[in-house]
Amino acid sequence: SEQDVPLKDKILMLHYLTWAKGTPLTNRLIAFKELSEGSNYFPTFSKRTIKPLLGPFGTEPGRLIGAAGKLGGRKADYGDVAVTINAFRRVPITIVLWRGDDEFAPEGSILFDASISDYLSTYDISELCESIGRRLIKRLREI
């Protein structure tokens, strides 16, 4: 049914529970490239997580706030529009978008608290962001 938790999300939860060190938030945001092996994996990360968000939200990034609100997200102060979604306890994910127009294509970024590697591997962080992106796009249809 639609209420079932996807297997990938169950695995992410298990990995979170296994990896979590209880490290407090640093309140210092980092980009994916700053994670261990993040630079090597960034092209794939961008293709699977950031680019899918640019289609539905790139020209109207304000719609991201409504979609994120459906997931418990809150507005953040970055880019043209940004939201922070608490994926797990002490694992905030901040999605930042810059509006596209006739001259420039929309752009996006996903930021993490610097402590995120104490909770998930770089691969799991990518999978988590992809899952959140799919949920945001799905919620867009509800607003």
TrEMBL record:
It holds the Pfam family DUF3786. InterPro entries: DUF3786. Residues 5-132 form the DUF3786 domain. This is DUF3786 domain-containing protein.
